[in-house]
Structures are given as structure tokens and as C-alpha cells.
């Protein structure tokens, strides 16, 4: 079992022939991801990177049995791309695009809520099941096979967590970059729940940041339902109140949005909280020993 993607996932790229789609599709193929084609409207019937190009996602589902899509479509059209993938029956949609208008994402989120589709992102690095399938933009060489799951709002901290875990002599089952926008598909709690139910994951790294309530909700779910150790970190500990920091969703609106408040809630819920991402690996080792 694995979380969201594995070596059998049949992946298509929406925005396949664009510069970003081309570059990252090449990297994904090199990693060993089972890429079966891509979608660029108007270019259907051609080939790109020795793979078929389709005009629509539904055509890709019909002809190459695609079940995972990764979106490299420009912001103005990305929400439509998400809805198109869900409408075509794609099971996992991973939206890398940054800068999708919030109102567009409200419509897309409402649309897919009635579909049998899991959305990851937008504005995220993607999902990687180590040494099996990389669907996104993460540097694959960092992720070595193991039994620790990672869920993170931050792309760079996803890579840092993986590096720490590997250097500690452990490894990664799957890493999910959920994205830092105000409206996203998969929440921290939902990702943690996937890992708790995964037979190939023994422990979880949970990386959050200031703004919103997702980390608190995840922590409370872990307290009630968790069966595996969780190590947590919150970015933005020195951020001033009321200032947006990096991600569109990273803004402190109230006392519970601060890093200190989130860290306190996580500790109360039995999560092993670290002050610095440099301590993730060593803390996970200790948590697993217990």
C-alpha cells in the first residue's frame, strides 16, 4: 500500500507542452514515474517527449487509462483544469500552479467536493512516493525509501524534512506537499489520516506554518485517533502579527494563528514538537524508539 501515488499510477500532465510542463515531465520520467501522456488543447494527436498529447483529459482517461493528473496550467486557466480532471474521473489531481485567484479556487473546490477525486494543492510541490513515483517538482534524489510519511505546507521544508529523516538512517514512504494557499484540496488532517491508515508508514512528520487552523485540527484528530508517533514543526515563529509571510495563507489573524499557539496545541495533543527543522530527524528517531 502507498499514499496517493505509486509505481502503478498512470500519470498525465496538464499543460504538457509548455516550458514548465516539459521540464518537470522530463524529470518525473527520469525518476521512474509512469507518465502515460499529457494534455494541451489544440495539440491532440501529436507527440511530445515520445508520449501522446491529447486535447482533453477525458480523452487521456479513455485512451491511456490515466488515473493521476499533475497540473502545470497558467493561473487564469488552472481552476478549469482542476475541474476538467475531476469531471473526467481522475482519482488524484495534483495542482502545482501558484497564483490561482482565490475566487476561482472556491468554485473548483466546491465542484470537486461532489466528485470521487482527491485534490492536492494548488501552489504545492506535489506528491512523491520514494523510489516509485514523483508527481510534481520536488528534487527526487533527496527522498530515499523508508517508513516515515511527510505532510507539509512548505515545499522547501518538505525537502529539509526528507533530508533530515534520511540522514537519521530512516526513510520516506510518501511526502505530500499540500500547498500554502488559503483554499487547498487536501488539508493537514486529511493527509495525516491517510498516513495513519497506511500499512507502509510507521510515523509522520507534520510541518505547518502561521495562519489558519489546519494544524490545530490535525493535532486534535491525532490526539483522538492517532496510532503512530507524529513529529511537528511550525514555520513563522518570528512573524509579526497581521503581516503575510510568503504563502498567501500565512497570515496571523488571531491569537490561535500564531506559531506559539499552534505549537502549544500540538504538544497538548501528544505531538513531538521541534523548535527547528534541523531537529526533525533526531526527534523522529527518539519518538520511534519510544
Written account of the structure:
With 290 residues, this protein is α/β, with parallel strands linked by helices. 34% of the residues lie in helices and 22% in strands. It has nine helices and 14 strands. The chain has a seven-stranded mixed β-sheet with strand order 3-4-2-1-5-6-7, sandwiched between helices. α3 packs parallel to α4 (102-112). It starts with 10 loop residues before the first strand and ends with a helix.
Helicity level, as a percent range? 25-40%
In whole angstroms, how far apart are the ends?
25 Å
What is the count of DSSP helices, taking H or I runs of 4+ residues? 9
Overall mean pLDDT stands at 94
Largest sheet: 7 strands, mixed
Low-pLDDT stretches: none
Tell me the series of helices and strands, N- to C-terminal. Answer: EHEEEHEHEHEEEEHEHEHEHEH
Summing up helix and strand content along with how strands pair, one would put the structural category as: alpha/beta
Report the strand count: 14
What general form does the structure show?
Answer: globular
Return Rg in Å: 18 Å
The portion of residues forming beta strands comes to: 15-25%
- Give me the side-by-side strand order of the main sheet: 3-4-2-1-5-6-7
